[in-house]
Amino acid sequence: MASAREAAEAEFRRFDADGDGLLTAAEIRQANEALGGQGASESEIETFIQSADRDGDGTIGLEEFVGLVGHGRHEKA
Ligand SMILES: [Ca+2]
Ligand SMILES: [Ca+2]
Q1: Ligand nearest to the Cα of 23, by number
Q2: What's the confidence (pLDDT) of residue 38?
Q3: CATH for 32
Q4: Ligand 2 centroid to 28 CA: how many Å?
Q5: Are 76 and 63 in contact (CB under 8 A)?
Q6: Looking at the CA of 21, which ligand is closest?
Q7: Which ligand places an atom closest to the C-alpha of 25?
Q8: How far is the CA of 34 from the centre of ligand 2 (A)?
Q9: More confident residue, 1 or 64
Q10: Which of 4, 16, 33, 77 has a Cα at 20 to 30 A from 70?
């Protein structure tokens, strides 16, 4: 049983293609496509980053990602 945080961390690592601990728009787009293309548009990806990017550096760090998906906004079946 993974905790919500562990699940979010595992998902973060799947998204983080170059393993630098930051998610960029390009990495999120690639991950979205790899997951079967749920149809997220460029503007939706930008909105996702803006909503998660608390320090305003234009990328999503692990804590920002966990803060966004680890609190009920991202539910798994
Ligand atoms: Ca990265
Ligand atoms: Ca950030």
Answers
A1: 1
A2: 66
A3: 1.10.238.10
A4: 14
A5: no
A6: 1
A7: 1
A8: 23
A9: 64
A10: 33
